[in-house]
């Protein structure tokens, strides 16, 4: 299956949206196996994670995520909304959410965050009525924003001293900007007025977050958000558990 996915990725990169017909034909077959493959823990530590079988599973998982990433970054996200493919969306969204929040491979987490950001841009406008996928906006606000953008980065295992982790953190910061641009007050109500207080963020920091979010300086916002996360971690004494 890896070779087949690599071939599809090459087709996607060469033909972009012109490959939509082919993908609509083959995607249901791929998607029907995707949940079984991606739900397995292929990145466990210790001897079990170093067998040939596990290495093959790791390669297959990485190739599948590369395939999904290639689809959305080459203007093919509409394939996921096709009648033959739509039935697999719920499973795919849940897998992407889990991976973006807690996968052991930090680079796969980055890819999944990037996929979500592109889907927001492709499927959502500033008007709910024009959204291409009903319910996607709510899913992103209530599940992704809270789970990935807040609780996952509060985990001690999310090492802000690690270079690759900081790259993922940058993508997560960008995701918040995109959600604010597309979702507006709906995002603010859930994230600033609800999620941050529930994570025991001091009110004055939540207000500063809102001000920085509205600004145009992404570097300043990223720096502030990292500081905010570190302060909440200190306040929690590292005891906050992802939920």
If you had to describe this structure to a student in words, what would you say it looks like?
- The chain is mainly alpha-helical and 243 residues long.
- The protein folds into 2 domains: 102 residues, no CATH class; 120 residues, no CATH class.
- It contains 10 helices and no strands.
- Helix 4 crosses helix 5, helix 6 packs antiparallel against helix 7 and helix 8 packs antiparallel against helix 9.
- The model has no long low-confidence stretch (mean pLDDT 92).
- Pfam families: Exportin-T (PF19282).
- One of its GO terms (molecular function) is small GTPase binding.
- One of its GO terms (cellular component) is cytoplasm.
- Keywords: Cytoplasm, Nucleus, RNA-binding, Transport, tRNA-binding.
- This is Exportin-T.
Distance between the termini: 34 Å
Structural class: mainly alpha
Secondary-structure element series: HHHHHHHHHH
Number of domains: 2
Mean pLDDT: 92
Fraction of residues in helices? Answer: over 70%
InterPro entries: ARM-like, Exportin-T_C, XPOT
GO molecular function: small GTPase binding; tRNA binding
Protein name: Exportin-T
Subcellular location: Nucleus; Cytoplasm
What are the SSEs and their pairings?
Blueprint: H1 2-15, H2 20-38, H3 52-73, H4 89-102, H5 106-123, H6 136-154, H7 163-183, H8 185-198, H9 203-214, H10 218-236
GO molecular function: small GTPase binding; tRNA binding
Main location: nucleus
Domain Exportin-T C-terminal: 1-231
């Amino acid at each position: 299956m890896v070779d087949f996915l690599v071939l599809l990725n090459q087709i996607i990169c060469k033909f972009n949206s012109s490959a939509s017909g082919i993908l609509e034909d083959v995607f249901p077959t791929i998607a029907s196996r995707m949940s079984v493959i991606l739900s397995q823990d292929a990145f466990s530590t210790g001897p079990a994670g170093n067998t040939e079988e596990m290495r093959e599973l790791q390669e297959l998982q990485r190739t599948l995520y590369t395939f999904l990433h290639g689809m959305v970054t080459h203007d093919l996200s509409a394939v996921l909304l096709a009648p033959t493919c739509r039935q697999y969306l719920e499973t795919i969204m849940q897998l992407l959410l889990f991976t973006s929040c807690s996968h052991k491979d930090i680079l796969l987490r980055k890819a999944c965050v990037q996929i979500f950001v592109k889907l927001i841009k492709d499927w959502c406008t500033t008007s709910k009525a024009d959204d291409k996928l009903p319910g996607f906006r709510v899913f992103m606000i209530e599940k992704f924003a809270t789970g990935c953008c807040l609780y996952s980065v509060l985990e001690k295992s999310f090492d802000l001293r690690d270079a690759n982790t900081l790259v993922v953190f940058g993508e997560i910061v960008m995701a918040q900007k995109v959600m604010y641009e597309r979702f507006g007050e709906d995002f603010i109500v859930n994230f600033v007025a609800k999620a941050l207080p529930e994570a025991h963020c001091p009110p004055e920091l939540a207000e500063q977050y809102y001000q920085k979010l509205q600004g145009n300086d992404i570097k300043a916002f990223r720096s502030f958000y990292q500081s905010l996360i570190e302060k909440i971690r200190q306040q929690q004494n590292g005891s906050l558990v992802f939920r």
